[in-house]
């Protein structure tokens, strides 16, 4: 196979290029990646990370923000009650918005796929509690073992207990009519 063109060419070093300046300007332009939208909107790119976080009332170093008490270290030191280096928070709304967002209840996002629900209902409808028969069923496309089928049914029971009770209750009259 032939070589790609330009690969064997000798690369020349440019002595006139100031690489330190290029690196420094690229580093200055790159802003930190911020995940929280509240912090991102209040961020000032002309200030340092420490200055931005201090203005928002956030800690740059959590170890310094919440120090280990001297009592735990074995030494007891009395303090006069004043905290040295108290900083002014200029953007308290950032912390307030983050606390409000954290206090909201979490949405339940645990649901089962419609295919799995239909599969479990079909298996229960045709075989009842006989897991070995379910494993031999033609609709068992994934060739689940009886234990795997039982586990899927238990997951369905735990996710949708009311729906499962109603489904089982609706199956009982059908079985009485058949007999």
UniProtKB/TrEMBL annotation:
User: Key word Nucleus present in the record?
Assistant: yes
- Which superkingdom does the taxonomy of this entry point to? Eukaryota
Q: Keywords in UniProt for this one? A: Nucleus
Predominant subcellular localization, coarse grouping: nucleus
Q: Does the keyword Secreted apply?
A: no
Q: Entry's Pfam families?
A: Nop16 (PF09420)
- Cellular compartments annotated: Nucleus, Nucleolus
Gene Ontology BP, a term? ribosomal large subunit biogenesis
Any Gene Ontology CC annotation = nucleolus
Q: Which family does it belong to?
A: Belongs to the NOP16 family.
Please state what the protein is called: Nucleolar protein 16
Q: What is the source species?
A: Sylvia borin (Garden warbler)
Q: What is the lineage of its organism?
A: Eukaryota, Metazoa, Chordata, Craniata, Vertebrata
């Amino acid at each position: 196979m032939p070589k790609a063109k330009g690969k064997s060419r000798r690369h020349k070093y440019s002595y006139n290029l100031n690489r330190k300046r290029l690196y420094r300007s690229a580093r200055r332009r790159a802003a930190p990646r911020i995940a929280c939208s509240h912090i991102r909107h209040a961020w000032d790119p002309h200030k340092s990370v420490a200055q931005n976080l201090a203005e928002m009332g956030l800690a740059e170093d959590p170890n310094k923000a919440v120090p280990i008490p001297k009592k735990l270290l074995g030494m007891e030191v009395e303090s006069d009650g004043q905290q040295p280096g108290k900083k002014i928070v200029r953007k308290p709304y950032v912390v307030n918005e983050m606390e409000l967002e954290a206090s909201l209840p979490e949405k339940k996002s645990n649901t089962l796929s419609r295919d799995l629900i239909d599969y479990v209902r079909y298996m229960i409808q045709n075989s009842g509690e006989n897991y070995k028969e379910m494993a031999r069923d033609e609709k068992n496309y994934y060739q689940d073992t009886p234990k795997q089928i039982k586990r899927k049914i238990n997951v369905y029971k735990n996710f949708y207990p009311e729906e499962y009770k109603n489904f089982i209750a609706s199956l009982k009259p059908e079985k009485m009519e058949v007999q």
